[in-house]
Write a sequence for this structure.
């Protein structure tokens, strides 16, 4: 079955999706920040969390991005095998990025890595970063996750020795200590374990899309507790909330490898999704 989509309508929808992601945090993220504020005992950290919540409220009320770093655009596309858009989806997503940059507006963040020349419209070689997945069904689901540099720059990947499974928690703690207040805590930590060098990084980033109210397993809880015991706190100013959640994704890996990637996400855990097409 072919489900035709109008290209102009699609571009407008994706630009609107970007606007939503930049202006409005998902409910589970806001709720996690509210809970952190209510249980925080440090007056400085409590004040910082209240300022973040006020920032979120004002961004939504006035329809402006919640942070000056509007990020680079990362898209996750789940394309149903029975869904046929009838046009080049990748080109249309790029056009939507250009439109959103102009209309919202967004800070043009995409530069050539060597010359540092800015494209001016948040597109360029490999940007937007689009991850494709073919899934059964008649729908097209698109998620956008704008990612700021402050948290991305403090993320790490290590090829551990396979005997070092017990060191993973310490690697996470070292990463968070080194990051300090730079990635704008409270953080969400996406951890990818296994796969290959690049797969581990992809798993870590995908883990950031997990709703924050998803129950954590014992390993995730243990890491979260240890991270929060560090006392780095909201915006690095101390307190009990360095991270809101830890989510781990794993994949089988080579018997001689143990890739571990930690993707750090700041409080502005921005993402939004839209679905096109008929019933699943
Ligand atoms: S780390 Fe996050 S909150 Fe801090 S400046 Fe970057 S995008 Fe904004």
């Amino acid at each position: 079955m072919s489900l035709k989509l109008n290209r102009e309508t699609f571009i407008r929808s994706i630009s609107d999706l970007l606007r939503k992601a930049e202006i409005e945090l998902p409910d589970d993220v806001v709720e996690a920040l509210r809970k952190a504020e209510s249980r925080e005992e440090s007056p400085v950290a409590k004040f910082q969390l209240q300022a973040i919540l006020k920032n979120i409220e004002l961004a939504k009320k006035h329809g402006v991005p919640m942070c000056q770093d509007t990020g680079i655009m990362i898209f996750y596309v789940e394309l149903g095998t029975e869904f046929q858009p009838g046009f080049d989806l990748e080109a249309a997503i790029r056009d939507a990025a250009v439109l959103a940059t102009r209309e919202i507006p967004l800070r043009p963040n995409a530069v050539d890595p060597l010359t540092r020349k800015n494209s001016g419209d948040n597109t360029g070689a490999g940007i937007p970063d689009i991850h494709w997945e073919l899934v059964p069904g008649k729908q097209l689901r698109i998620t956008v996750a704008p990612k700021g540099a402050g948290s991305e720059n403090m993320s790490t990947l290590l090829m551990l020795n396979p005997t070092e499974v017990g060191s993973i928690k310490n690697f996470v703690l070292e990463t968070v200590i080194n990051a300090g207040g730079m990635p704008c805590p409270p953080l969400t930590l996406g951890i990818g374990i296994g796969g290959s060098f690049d797969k581990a990084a992809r798993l870590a980033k995908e883990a950031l899309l997990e709703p924050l109210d998803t129950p954590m397993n014992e390993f995730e809880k243990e890491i979260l507790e240890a991270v929060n015991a560090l006392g780095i706190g909201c915006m690095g100013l101390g307190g009990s909330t360095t991270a809101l959640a830890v989510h781990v994704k794993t994949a089988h890996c080579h018997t001689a490898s143990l890739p571990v990637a930690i993707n750090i996400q700041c409080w502005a855990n921005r993402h939004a999704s839209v679905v096109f097409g008929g019933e699943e």
Summary: The mean pLDDT is 96. The chain has two domains: 7-22+66-146, 149-265. Residues 149-265 form one domain. The two ends are 12 Å apart (CA to CA).
